[in-house]
Amino acid sequence: MINRVSLILFITILILIIACGDSTNNQTLPVSSQAILDTLGNAGIGIKSSVVTYTGQSLYEYIDGGAETYHQYGFIEVSTADYKVGGSEITTDIYRFDNADHAFGIYSTLRPDGLTTIKIGVEGVSSPTSFDFVKGDYLVRLVCYEGNEKATKALAKLAHDIEKLIPGKTKYPDKFALFPTLNRIPGSNNITAQSYLGQTSLTDVYSVDIKSNGDNFRLFLTDDPDGSKFSAWIAKNKIDPKAIKSLKGLPFDDGKVIQVSDFRHGKTIAGLKDGRLIGVIGNPEKSKAILKGWLNILNKSH
Asked: Which of 50, 54, 136, 234 would be a feasible disulfide site paired with 58, CB 3.0-4.6 Å?
């Protein structure tokens, strides 16, 4: 039997979800991570432990050593509990962030390379022992240590049960629509909160990977309305005048373009365009054509 307090909580969550309307809307009502897990338990999922919630700096008590990255993406809280699904015990974490872009950003840093993405919420990935997905302001992480077919099915079932309870957007952050769709590599949408390419000035950077004529390239952009990110980047790098001269044909604002190279990231070309810092990483000769085509697409969209 569900007691009166649990019933009230369950009804409250349902009202909040209904009030959110279409899950693709930009405006959603915040729901605490703990309320979502409590509702999950009340819906008949067997809970094996009490729900524990960590907020703010207390996150270090839960994931000491990795908490700083979560804080870079606007971490608010995480609630965690163990559930029994189909005979498998699953550790369930629901993280909440200050906005949907930040939630997707932390997910993109945790997403393993080489895994095929799943359409759940905005996006998800799974393995025999784990299932992660992002929806709205929330990142959900599930772990089961059994690693067999029964456990894999249990992970998927619990993930979909939780997804139904979470309000928020199921579309990628809007800035990814600014990138070309042709030849985009699936599962390569990323958001880097700080120090992109090792540059402290490059914050909140959106990037995608594309494949062209057998080569991979990474396209990236970040808002830079006053050009301060671009100026700081130039100030900290040695610029080759000959290389810059060869880039003058690219349609950046007032010829504001940079080419840098380092052993870790290779050749990078970037410049200012309509209040954004836009660039490409890859073979410098081929990447110029890719970057020019992208800039021309952006010109036509205005």
From this structure: 54
Domains contained in the chain, CATH given: 4-165 (3.40.1000), 174-301 (3.40.1000)
Q: How far is CA 57 from CA 45, 76, 105, 146, 280, in A?
A: 30, 9, 20, 32, 36
Q: 219, 212 in Cβ contact below 8 A?
A: no
pLDDT mean by block of 10 residues, the chain; 302 residues: 43 44 47 90 74 95 90 97 89 96 98 91 96 97 90 93 94 96 93 95 97 91 97 84 80 88 85 95 86 87 65
CA distances to 109, 152, 217, 257, 297 from 254, rounded to whole Å, are 34, 55, 25, 9, 18
Three-state SS sequence of 103-125 = HHHHHHHHCCCCCCCECCCCEEE
